[in-house]
Amino acid sequence: MEAIAEAEIEECKECDAKYAAVIQALSTQEAELIAMTDAMAESLSEIDPNTENGAEGKALLRKMYKIKGIEPEEIESAMPDTPEACVLGVAGKVIMLESLEEDVAKATSFRDFFADVYCAAYVNSLVTMDDGMTQIFPGGLDWTIEEELQRSYGPFEQDQLDVVEIAAIEAYMVAVEAGDFSDDSSVLIAAVTPLADAIKRCDPIVTDEIALAQKDREDYLYDNNFLRYLRTL
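User: That's the sequence. What structure does it adopt?
Assistant: Structure tokens below.
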């Protein structure tokens, strides 16, 4: 009997240690989730000119999350196998573990929601004017550039536009290389290096949108600087 009692004590010690390990792992996971959400909030305040700071952004998204009625998905329980003789001894840890599992599920759900918003905000930031609201669109300056080409190099017929534009672009590039003209990107909100861990969580469709937005940004800045150059002639 004594040998059985000692075996049970040892078994319960091992059981208790398993609970402690799971609780520690979940606590670490929760802390990491919260840390990533906080990091996204701070980065969002740099990306979005309409967000004052990380705390404000996080509070706003928390309200959005609640309004949308998003419910966290249940996570698979990490409850260790518990011998009957050890149930009472780990009762407190069972309650703690269940609470942690619920907290981790909520933190994971909010982190994922925040990441979706962050990815969309980053796309918008790449194509937003310095007023923080107006967005650019491909070819938006084409007509204005053509008018300036007519003013500076014209008058010329429409079928001569390509030849004139090429000559003007060459002159623009020479002026930049010579230091006689400087490009300026301040017409758009400043490009910010996004949080890598957040971008990794972007939907593949959004990842494609980021690449397109980066291309649109480059094209718009080129057109805008070319237009600025033409207006100096």
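The first helix runs from residue 2 to 47.
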